[in-house]
UniProtKB/TrEMBL annotation:
InterPro entries recorded: MOT1/MOT2 (IPR031563)
Pfam families linked: MFS_MOT1
PANTHER family: MOLYBDATE TRANSPORTER 2 (PTHR31970:SF9), PTHR31970
Keywords, in A-Z order: Membrane, Transmembrane, Transmembrane helix
Annotated source species: Shewanella morhuae
Residues that span the membrane, as ranges: 25-42, 48-65, 95-115, 145-162, 214-238, 259-278, 290-308, 315-337, 349-374
This protein's name: Sulfate transporter
Length: 386
């Protein structure tokens, strides 16, 4: 009679866990690759510096948190740098300024105070808004080739209900790359200059003008999103998924690790980086549960940084934009959905929707303020009724 813990069963469980960690490690590519490849190919930033930064940040996060805490580009900063063709110095200055601000907020206690004002309803509202924004970005990327994008999205969505769901994401990416290579009509390779992606690594330092411009045009728009999504919301989500590690998964720690990473790695060419609730959601969805996922991702980034050349640039450019869009849409859908949207109390639903609508209509800082004001009003009302 074969026991329930037979070597074969243990081996299968270990393989499935490793497969889940590996799949989860690369599940956030829909957010990561479009911004990173844009900085490298369109703005001619050094790929070595950018991948080195992400690699070190991911590995150190893995060793510290021991959970699948993701690292990703600061989306507002990266998008503005790409869209406006800003200099590497502007990106460096914005990353270091964000690092300084996060460290000040963490060690002053301001982050901890702000997190205490953030109820679950406010957090869900912020996540709903960010999730909808990611879904919109993903849909635009999928529109480059609707059939491929929505086909990939459908497979990824259906895979959630299948036993081998961890295989879906790597198989979809591999299939997209094979299709791209065979047809050479894919949509990233036509938009990216492979030669521009081989800019040599060099140390630079921002000028006085770049410091000032970065503070005004990059840091201020990014700060609200970082505080809500990459510090407070991810802390609430991580503590919910891993309650046994709640003491370590605090807003203060997330602010400290992001702050140190930006302050110390930006001088070496790293992009502005942070953690992210959306990244945690999609990595967890595809099977990441331990430090192995960020360790695998970080090690891959370091290998790419050390071996970067035209061949690797060409290989990454084979991933179709529509495939990346499908991954981004899945991440947004997972982040936006919450049971509280259905079973929450009426006032809870009001707070969620008010917070989300304000985030979408104005920005994340305004949405956070509206949510906190409504929650404070609820608490005062409840105290008055006692």
């Amino acid at each position: 009679m074969i026991s329930g813990n037979s070597p074969k069963k243990v081996c299968n469980q270990s393989f499935n866990r490793l497969l889940g960690e590996t799949s989860g490690a690369f599940a956030d590519l829909g957010t990561f690759l479009p911004l990173v490849l844009g900085l490298i190919a369109l703005n001619q930033f050094s790929a070595q510096g950018i991948f080195l930064g992400f690699g070190l940040f991911a590995i150190l996060s893995a060793l510290f948190y021991r959970r699948p805490i993701p690292v990703q580009p600061m989306k507002v900063i990266a998008a503005l740098v790409i869209a406006q063709g800003l200099s590497p110095g502007m990106l460096q200055a914005s990353a270091m300024l964000m690092g300084i601000i996060l460290l000040i907020l963490a060690f002053s206690g301001a982050i901890t105070w702000l997190a205490k004002q953030l109820s679950q309803a406010v957090s869900v509202g912020i996540q709903l808004a960010i999730g909808l924004q990611l879904m919109w970005m993903g849909a635009k990327m999928m529109s480059e080739f609707w059939l491929l994008g929505f086909g990939a999205f459908g497979l990824l969505f259906i895979s959630k209900f299948l036993p081998l769901r961890y295989l879906a994401m790597p198989l979809v990416i591999a299939a997209g790359m094979i299709w791209q290579a065979s047809t050479q009509t894919g949509l990233i390779s036509n938009n990216l200059d492979i030669q521009a992606m081989t800019t040599p690594f060099q140390l630079t330092w921002p000028t006085a003008v770049e410091w000032t411009s970065a503070a005004l045009f990059l840091v201020l728009p990014q700060l609200a999103l970082t505080l809500t999504n990459a510090v407070i919301a991810i802390s609430a989500m991580a503590q919910e998924k891993f309650p046994e590690d709640a003491a370590k998964l605090t807003p203060k720690n997330f602010a400290i690790t992001s702050g140190l990473a930006n302050l110390l790695l930006a001088p070496f060419g790293a992009s502005a980086m942070c953690h992210g609730a959306g990244g945690l959601t999609v990595q967890y969805h595809f099977g990441a549960r331990t430090y192995l996922a960020p360790l695998i991702f970080g090690s891959s980034c370091l290998i790419i940084a050390l071996c970067w050349g035209s061949n690797i640039a060409w290989l990454l450019s084979l991933i179709p934009m529509a495939i990346l869009g499908s991954l981004l849409t899945i991440a947004g859908l997972q982040l936006a959905w919450s049971k509280r949207l259905i079973d929450g109390r009426p006032f809870c639903i009001l707070v969620i929707l008010s917070t989300a609508i304000t985030c979408l209509a104005i920005n994340a800082a305004a949405g956070l303020a509206v949510g906190i004001i409504l929650e404070q009003a609820r608490r005062k009302t409840m105290l008055a009724m006692r």
